[in-house]
Amino acid sequence: MHAQRGDWLVVKGIHVDVPEHRGRIVAVGSPDGDPPFTVRWLGADHESTVFPGPDAIVLTDAELPARTVREGNPEGIRVPQGSPHSPRVANRREPPVPR
Fold first, then answer.
1. Is the pLDDT of residue 52 over 90?
2. Which residues contact 4 (CB under 8 A, 6 or more apart)?
3. Which residues contact 91 (CB under 8 A, 6 or more apart)?
4. Of 11, 74, 81, 82, which residue is most buried, by most CB within 10 angstroms?
5. Residues 6 or more apart from 44 whose CB is under 8 A from it?
6. What pLDDT is recorded for position 62?
7. Where are the domains of the chain?
8. Where does the DUF1918 domain lie (predicted)?
9. Do 83 and 19 contact (CB within 8 A), yes or no?
10. Closest by Cα among 36, 41, 35 to 8
11. Are 36 and 18 in contact (CB under 8 A)?
12. What is the three-state SS of 27-73?
């Protein structure tokens, strides 16, 4: 996988009800565009270093709108509020469900 600064990293959710996570690549690990990538995640307002797995793809600015419209999400670049990928939610523990 290769990227340039300014491309988008899109990581698919690992479960059906988990939305994909999108972020702008702000730095790449080598001049060739190899990982790791530094990504500023949308909706989470933080940056992290990422070694993308097989569930991730890199899209250019031109490719992103076409992909989101094709999938029926013309706004496409927003992470839904309460996304489990958001660091504000991911570290929160839910209370146990009574039996």
1. yes
2. 25, 28, 33
3. none
4. 11
5. 79, 85, 86, 87, 88
6. 86
7. 8-76
8. 1-58
9. yes
10. 41
11. no
12. EECCCCCCCCEEEEECCCCEEEEECCCCCEEEECCCHHHHHHHHCCC
55, 59, 65, 68 alpha-carbon torsion, rounded to 10°: -10
Length of the chain as a residue count = 99
Rounded Cα distance between 67 and 94, Å, is 34
- Find, among 46, 43, 55, the residue nearest to 9 by Cα: 55
Which residue's entry shows tokens 């504000």? 88
Residue corresponding to tokens 């250019």: 60
The residue assigned the tokens 């989470």 is 44
Residue 75 and residue 61: Cα distance in Å, rounded? 13
Q: Report d(CA 11, CA 32) in Å as an integer.
A: 21
